[in-house]
Please model this.
Amino acid sequence: MTVLAEATAATADGAAIESLFWIALVAVLSPVTARLTRGYVPDTVLLLVAGMVIGPHLLGWASGDGLSILKELGLGMLFLLAGFELDVRLLGGRPARVAGLTWLVSLALATGFVALLVSGAEITTVVAVAIAMTSTALGTLLPIIEQLGLLNRPLGRAVMANGAVGELGPILAMSLLLTSRSIGAAVVVLILFGLAAVVTALVPARLIRRIPFLGESLTEMNGGTFQLPVRVVFLLLVALMAVAAVFDLDVVLGAFAAGIILRRLIGERGPEMSESLEVIGFGVFIPIFFVMSGMAIDVHAVLAKPGTWAGFVRAIALARGVPVWLSERFVTHGANLASPRERVQLALYCATGLPIIVAVTDVAVRGNLLDAELASTMVAAGATTVLLFPLLARVVGSGAASPSAAGDRTR
Model:
């Protein structure tokens, strides 16, 4: 029996390594292919599509068996970097308040659209899909608007303000609404988690200030075989993901909080640490997350109901893009975009959502709030928005920006 168990374990390990090989191969080929398309097909979309192809629903070359922890770490790194890139100052002032109210309108509209698209669905299913539809993929958009030289322009600042709310709003909504607790209990748990996150942020900061040896160690052991700051960041990420799990919250919230805390902790080390985190995140864990998310998409279920797929893409544009356009056009907040082209671009950028769609549907499927077929269709719709909406925004703005401005990078 022992020999049989060992042989079974060895076979499982071998299958996991084989799956990891195909995932790694896809992760290498994807950016090369994206470059061949001159960036019009984003790397994220290619990773998802390749995951669908090699996954169990098509070729069957790879499966997620034995690799779930890598996917979880990829999800954590994705939202840690999202939180790290988020400037909390964007959440203050009248433009941010208008963006927040606009997101709430989007959530209400999305709820209505989902109720029409998915007839007979339970309220928890409707809410889960609606939350996913109101997200903005700020982490995906950031390199796009940066490459086009828009980051420090009014359009770029508007995208950042609305995108910050479009990331934070769905994450908080997940914690409040996609739970078995009552709203009141969920709020209390969320406050407790916030306090735990504050303690997690204050303790290392105070220790470094009061014990000079610790600060010196972080500086002196920054490179070589030690890479101590990177190890500390990984500890922070896992610690807050664990705290979120203890409070029965989704790990996305813990990872996002870790990124926000990290931004405040590292101060002047920001650019150097950001580069190290991007190497680890976008070089290893995040591609694994997207490929494995693609492997979970049931292609046959999506193609069997193309109308539902197209309907979700239209619903995302209407629920998220139209309220952003209307608020930018008719609600004065002191930093409104004057150009009609830029308002349309802003609406298209803000309706671009994928990472949170993947995260919300994953949470909803695991919690039996959403069936796998509908989740597959939602993720496919999210991938379509990443492929289509930034491209349309680029076309709309092509006559408004000079070629030299479009080629500048701000970072």
